[in-house]
Amino acid sequence: MKVAVVGCGGISSMHLRALKDNPDTDIVAVADIKPERADKAAAEYGAKAYYDFDELIGNEELDAIHICTPHYLHTDMAIKALSKGINVLTEKPCSVSADEVEALRKAQEESGMQVGVCFQNRYNNCVHRAKEIIASGTLGKMLSARAFVTWYRGKDYYSDDWHGTLEKECGGVLINQSIHTLDLIEHLCGKCRKVTAHVSNDHLKGIIEVEDNASVLMELENGITAMMYATTAYAENSDVFIEISFENGKLRFEGDRLYSVDANGNITEACERPEAVYHGQSYWGVGHSILINDYYDCLKSGRKFGIDAFEGGNAAKLVFACYESSEKDESVEIL
Predict the structure, then answer these.
(1) What gap in Å lies between CA 144 and CA 124, rounded to an integer?
(2) Domain end: 120, 137, 156, which one?
(3) Residues 182, 318: one domain?
(4) Which of 279, 316, 312 minimizes the C-alpha distance to 114?
């Protein structure tokens, strides 16, 4: 399958390496508005360099395109590609407003093409194992969940022309870093129906326009509540912590480890950790390559990819509801 990658910044390396290792994909083109980045990626992966997205999709016969650009471009680029009969795999968030989510969903349905959203942590072994344990019912009724994302982003991270801006990043720790954790809470515990959230810029006032701290109270459709706290003002990039409480115990995630806690407080490791090669930072997880391979297996077999504009759009809509809740200082229902 002929594939292109648009956006040759940091996250693109995860996609390019996975595509290079996949026997079913051929990287024919890359694009970036910064010629030096496009040229570097093109030379490394034997592809043609473009400096304009429209020129790329107008000139190349593509089976799929990976969108690794700043957030505000994702939906527009995806819809343009879909209209040309090109399958799309986009980095999160798939959209930067609820209206964009609906526009992308409509484009997916009308085009008949496959849309994928990169929520790679769903592919972690520990997440698969947790889904199995929850489905088995051995822990009894689910009661609540809590999660913590404590990472560090300093001035250097925001030294480019889009991170930390309302116009292009369209948010901070919620839409960029902790959207993965919000997605996992919904994936494991159920869809959110109402949210009460508070966001603030406490760490880099005057440097960024977006939030670096967030607290979120989620009311899920199954009746339980979930809490998440996220910050990019911590001293290090620590493992994401998620704990789900049940009648008969708890499941506890620390990075790519899963622990089971019984009613007496005894802790045991509940998931085998496979040997893994990290193409990026270890605290990001190792799911990118697995997700990308699964996406192309879906294109090859005709199977529907699980994290499409509908499923992948849910976490984006949750983030937008958090921003609305914080701005209005009241709870917001998610439609």
Answers:
(1) 22
(2) 120
(3) yes
(4) 312
Question: Which amino acid, 191?
Answer: K
**Contact predicate 127/222, CB 8 Å:** no
pLDDT in tens, 143-189: 999 999 999 999 999 999 999 999 999 999 999 999 999 999 999 99
Among 72, 94, 120, residue at a domain's last position: 120
- 298 part of a folded domain: no
Distance of CA 221 to the CA centre of its chain: 22
Instruction: Report which residue type is found at 295.
Output: Y
Phi, psi of 213 (to 5 degrees): -140, 145
Task: Answer whether residue 291 is part of any domain.
Answer: no
Phi-psi region of 44 (alpha: psi -120 to 50; beta: other; left: phi over 0): alpha
**Angle in degrees, CA 324, 97, 302, rounded to 5:** 135
Query: Do 150 and 115 sit in the same domain of this protein?
Result: no
CA distances from 54 to 16, 22, 81, 290 (A): 20, 26, 9, 29
Domain count of the chain?
2
CATH for 68: 3.40.50.720
Decide: 272 and 284 in contact? Cβ < 8 Å. Answer: no
What is d(CA 7, CA 34) in angstroms, rounded to the nearest whole number? 9
Q: What's the domain range around 44? A: 2-120
Looking at the fold, whether 259 and 175 belong to one and the same domain comes out as yes
Same domain, 181 and 277: yes
| Burial of 324 (C-beta count, 10 Å sphere; 0-12/13-18/19+) | middle
Q: What is this structure's pTM? A: 0.94
Q: Helix, strand or coil for residue 287? A: helix
pLDDT category of residue 275 using cuts at 50, 70 and 90: low
Helix (H, G, I), strand (E, B) or coil at 149: strand
DSSP state for residue 179 in the 8-state scheme: H
Cα 147 from Cα 188, distance rounded (Å):
12
Rounded CA separation 104/307 (Å): 13
